[in-house]
Design goal:
This protein is α/β, with parallel strands linked by helices and about 190 residues long. It has a single domain, classed as Flavodoxin domain (Rossmann fold), CATH 3.40.50. Helices cover about 45% and strands about 20% of the residues. It is built from six helices and six strands. Strands 1, 2, 3, 4, 5 and 6 form a six-stranded mixed sheet that branches. Strand 1, helix 1 and strand 2 form a beta-alpha-beta unit. Helix 1 packs across helix 6.
Length: about 190
């Protein structure tokens, strides 16, 4: 059993990555494997709506997303963390989710039944809109999104500040526990 976690930040050690590392620690502590994939250094492109993935199961764009999709296909869970940019999810995070969703929906529905959800990290505001924006991906792809004791969002600007948001960190830890617990229940 495995959960893939995506850190959608361009910063390899920023708040989003630190939160994904915290989630991974909780998931592994519950006895489920966790793998973090960072978007730092990647240039994820927008879908060009060519439709070729519906025939091949692979995207024609060569930016590393096919390798990420292979890892998601093999996992039972998926958590996606995004920093908040101008009140919404970072653009390449949404580009990736749209392409991943398109590959799943038009071919073999590999996302259906996977457990997971979004996490939003921002300085001041926009986290709830970012969560709503990313939730559309999980819901339309027939995925299972467990809750937590509050919204999956944290406040922080400089690297490390989000980890000082005690309520946010506790919420994310509880969410990660719920993801791992549900993965175990569904796949034991």
């Amino acid at each position: 059993m495995k959960v893939v976690l995506i850190s959608g930040s361009p910063k390899p050690d920023g708040n989003t990555m630190q939160i994904m590392q915290e989630c991974a620690k909780v998931i592994e502590g519950a006895g489920v494997e966790a793998e973090i994939i960072s978007f730092a250094g990647k240039k994820i492109e927008s879908c060009i709506a060519c439709g070729k993935c519906s025939k091949t199961g692979k995207c024609v764009l060569d930016d590393g997303l096919n390798e990420i999709v292979d890892k998601i296909r093999a996992a039972e869970g998926l958590i996606v963390g995004s920093p908040v940019y101008f009140g919404t999810a970072r653009g390449d995070v949404m580009c990736a989710l749209q392409r991943i969703g398109y590959m799943s929906r038009t071919r073999d529905k590999f996302l259906s039944g996977k457990v997971g959800g979004p996490v939003a990290v921002g300085r001041r505001g926009g986290q709830t809109l970012t969560l709503q924006e990313m939730l559309m991906f999980f819901f339309i792809n027939d995925m299972i999104v467990p809750g937590s004791n509050y919204w999956n969002m944290l406040f922080g600007w400089n690297p490390g500040e989000a980890m000082q948001d005690a309520e946010g960190v506790a919420t994310i830890r509880h969410f990660a526990e719920n993801v791992a617990g549900l993965v175990k229940k569904l796949h034991s």
